[in-house]
Amino acid sequence: xxxxxxxxxxxxxxxxxxxxxxxxxxxxxxxxxxxxxxxxxxxxxxxxxxxxxxxxxxxxxxxxxxxxxxxxxxxxxxxxxxxxxxxxxxxxxxxxxxxxxxxxxxxxxxxxxxxxxxxxxxx
Length: 123
Ligand code: FES
Known about the structure:
This protein is mostly beta strands. It is built from 1 helix and 10 strands; from the N terminus they run βαβββββββββ.
């Protein structure tokens, strides 16, 4: 089953995006009842659900480490901004990630109409 993706404009320009989310920072916003964490690292802008899959702490309260990973502020689990996978070997499901596109008229994030299925891991 193919998920329908709805695109939402985040910023009018990439310059506005970078001003709002400077390099190595995190930014939280809400789109249609979903909390989204926008990150800006050397790998570019990325979007993921703003909830650590461990205890649902907002990932936007964390920080970007030297490997361009998002580190949860509470137990320091590290997440890949592109895949959502935890990178220190914890047995936990990945964070949901959302595509970002720069278009002529702005910077958009694509949110599936239903939550994408992610691999389930035991805790
Ligand atoms: S709540 Fe994020 S690592 Fe535990």
